[in-house]
Amino acid sequence: MQYNKRMEKDEEISNLIGQRNMRIQKLRKLRELGFNPFPPKSNKQLTISEFLDNFDSYLNKKCTIAGRLISWRGHGKIAFANVKDSTGSVQIFCQSSLLFKPSDDTESLNFDQIKDLVDVGDFVEVTGNAIVTKAGEKSISPQKFRLLTKSLRPIPRSYEEIKDKELLYRRRYLDTNINKEKFDRFIRRSKFWEAHREFFKQNGFLEMNIPVLESVTGGADANPFVTHIDALDEQLYLRISQELNLKRLIGGGYDKVYEIGPRFRNEGISEEHLPEHIAMEFYWAYADWQDGMKFIQELFRFVYNKVYGTLKFTIRGFDIDLANNWEKIDYTSVIKNRYDIDVFHTNLEEIKAILKNNKVKADGDLNVNRGIDLLWKLIRKDIGGPVFLVNEPKFLSPLAKSDPGNPLLTQRFHPIIGGFELGNGFSELNDPEDQLNRFLEQQRLRDNGDKEAQMLDIDFVEMLEYGMPPTFGYGHSERNFWVFEGAPAKDCVPFPLMRHSVSGLTKDIYPDIYKKVETKRQEEKGSRKKHE
After folding, report:
1. Tens of pLDDT, residues 364-389
2. Which helix (H) or strand (E) holds 388?
3. Domain range for 258
4. How far apart are CA 29 and CA 109, in angstroms?
5. Which of 261, 372, 478, 485 is most open to solvent, judged by the fewest CB atoms within 10 Å of its CB?
């Protein structure tokens, strides 16, 4: 079976190499004829959607569009083709008699040159009149046809042609060329963050760029990536959160700040988690968690209405209406009601027994804090929402302000939608002594093997000693977008992180170069391990 698959793969690669060689021959022929297969500029006047949406105003008038050639159907001295750009596709009705070449035209191709030297996948520029064909199709009848980019590899026409589906993650540019739904998804992803920025601007927030490299990382329970800066000869971390530096800005006198940018967590890769992803955090001076809950409802409604044009969704079988009032559920009560334990008076053995009964595997580094969090996650998956989870225990919230009515609890909430926890907001802790004690407890957990416990950041405590006003803070990641798309994480980011790999086709085309590159990679990998 493996042998047959290998033969099939070899045949596929051989066929692709043959097609590539034919295209290279055409490339050389174009150059021999005096054409530049990669001219530096296009004369494109309008997008295809502009052309189609305003077709009547262009009818029988000359205009110029450009894009990728996606089909060619020749019939003697006429041909029908389709060209697409990022906005749509249009039919090209080519007639040999109209594709004349003035003696001084060194760029335009005649009909036979197009037929013999241009391939599906090439980028072309078409100048001609807007017409309606006998079949009623809005089209362009070209008088001038320029080659803008000669493609050397054929683009698959459909998913069925791609036997290795992982290729779509590694070569996303192929995926978006053959799948309009994927193409449109990344437009929605862009609009998702664009809507956030619009909402924050309307509410007087400033977008602030803050460092990605940190000497001490914090603001979340996560395992960081470790790196090294040669100039300072110090170990650094890729940030796991934007929190502490944004709160330093609040301490610096700014009232409303936010950032949208990457964060990194050296943890698993799954349908719900990626080690690198985009996240948003904002901080609002002189506000508290109650103000925050109202604000988050407005934010969700604004963003999802902008992106999808509705507030009603079905997520994991739950019917969700963001327009409804969001109820509140109490953290300690919901665990007490489900498992009959008091989170403030329990032990690891009791928690492990419950996890075992619910078929949840707990690793050897499990502690009470992590165990209680796992119990909550078991409950969460059955909550449709939208609701706010409130009153999280202080021992699980090292950066949140205590509830004056019950010092064991914090003024913290999580929005829960479709069984997912989609954000984290709280009244920020601004008491430096309290913060130091919580950092010390987190550091103790870290020293005892909890890699996700937060580091002691004494510089942040120093900032608090200078004073930070009462503040509300909140953050969520693009996981929110993945949930509302109803798709796995890898399908919702353009280029998900994957193990390094070079395609078999490229190895066969450039064997000597590949061997040199791979040898160099292995040498550098060995050098890093030796250094470590």
Report:
1. 578 888 888 888 888 999 999 899 99
2. strand 387-390
3. 180-286+473-482
4. 13
5. 261
